[in-house]
Amino acid sequence: MTASELIQKYNVPGPRYTSYPPVPYWNIRQWQVNDWLSLVRKAQHAETDKKLSLYIHLPYCDSLCTFCGCHKHITTNHQVESRYIDAVLKEWQLIAGNLDPESEIEEIHLGGGTPTFFGADELVRLIEGLKQILPFSLQIEMGFEAHPNSTTTEHLSKLHALGFKRISFGIQDYDPLVQKAIHRIQSKEHVLFCHENARKSGYESISHDLVFGLPKQSMEGFRNTVEQTLNLKPDRISLYSYAHVPWVKGTGQRGYDEADLPSADLKRRLYEYAKGVFLQEGYIEIGMDHFALPDDTLALAASQKKLHRNFMGYTTTPNSLLIGLGMSAISDCKLGFAQNEKSVSQYLKRVENNELPITKGHQLSESDLEIRQHILHLMCHFETTFPETTTLDRKKTEEKLAEMVNDGLLTIKDGTIEISETGMPFVRNCCMAFDAYFENDIAARKFSMTI
Ligand SMILES: C[S@@+](CC[C@H](N)C(=O)[O-])C[C@H]1O[C@@H](n2cnc3c(N)ncnc32)[C@H](O)[C@@H]1O
Ligand code: SF4
Q: Fewer CB atoms inside 10 A, N or C side of the chain?
């Protein structure tokens, strides 16, 4: 089968598996705070290691990019900053008191929205405040997402002085036509300035986010984007497939026409082209959507099969407890998930009322836990093995994968499923064969396309 025929066959709506089960299938509409906290304690108690990761969602952006699928709040009023930081610190205080006294923070990631919407001093206040509440591990890994248009020299130097070693810049595409369509104008000269400034400030890992499948993208324009990216040689590159989900309220994706989107075939060719050039230039493909230079810690972890994936993406720290702070943030204690309020005003209101702002979530069953492991292995190592005593119907799962075997996308031998080189772009389709919720519900939910 040709690459284009494979795409036609396998490009179907499906979950992205940032969690299993995917958010639409979570079984708790409204967590009772005490139930959630006791699940967290139970999960922490079962682990010998009390290290945890913190994800902090900083939702504000100065301007709306019309392709964006993130939870964000657009405003030009920077007065909002200090109230929000106060709330995050208070939220952490409310949670930290319930954790094991041996707990320490091993990883912090600032995501958004746009962390660099906040002034450098507010971000310093945030980190210093967190440190007062629970100790940081000596090996702490800290990173943040930065919009080139709002990243200042002060951000770079002050955050580096605090211990941030990783930064990821949202680039998306350099083509002026695409930038106009997505309402995000940023010059390559400015990106170059930020990138070099970050290097000079001492950041060890600089990552660039690119998106393929955006409106008005063409092969010629994207070639130039790939070339510009390689000129700067970031340590990591995220090559995201544009998730077109205009039915999700408030994503702002209705600013352009469906006709402006590249065809499925062109979209795939954009990906194949970028991937080919990155590999040729010495990058290693890490899990799904990610590339890294061979000496980058993610690449090393991937080669040693030590890669882990959580809501923040791929990571080298496999902590089983991830606490999400801030509007819409998701926490994961291995046995369950909880998500915070998705509107800034509700989030602030509940925290300022001394309440944990959690809403929906999920408590994982035995079989959820096993499926979650398979999906994690497939996403991180492109292979998974059924345990001797499985909670799943192995025969049925293997039958569901038979067509992918026939098409050369994977092999199955003695209970081990291994995705081939050709099958790598179709890893989500393979995960779907394990998904116990999706199979009964294909028509009812709306997901972005798998490719
Ligand atoms: C929170 S933003 C990064 C920080 C900052 N707000 C910025 O835009 O530069 C996270 C990344 O998610 C990706 N992203 C956002 N919406 C997306 C969509 N609909 N499909 C695929 N990727 C998307 C973009 O690559 C973006 O850089
Ligand atoms: S892409 Fe980044 S800056 Fe643009 S709206 Fe989304 S979160 Fe905000």
A: N
Token match 């944990």: residue? 356
Pocket test for ligand 1, best of 75, 237, 240, 290 (most atoms within 8 A of CB): 240
Instruction: Please provide the average confidence, as pLDDT, over all residues in the chain.
Output: 92
Kindly report which listed range (189-193, 302-306, 444-448) carries the lowest average pLDDT score.
Answer: 444-448
Binding-site residues, ligand 1, Cβ < 6 A: 61, 67-70, 111-114, 145, 147, 170, 172, 209, 211, 240, 242-243
Distance, in Å, from the CA atom of 117 to the CA atom of 279, rounded to the nearest integer, reads 34
The arrangement of secondary structure in 22-363, i.e. its CATH architecture, is: Alpha-Beta Horseshoe (3.80)
Residue 449 is encoded by which pair of tokens? 């396309």
pLDDT (0 to 100) of residue 253: 56
Q: Which fold has domain 366-439?
A: Arc Repressor Mutant, subunit A (1.10.10)
Is 147 touching ligand 2 by the criterion CB < 6 Å? yes
pLDDT band (50, 70, 90) for residue 247:
low
373 exposure class (CB count in 10 Å sphere: 0-12, 13-18, 19+): middle
Boundaries of CATH 1.10.10.920 in the chain?
366-439
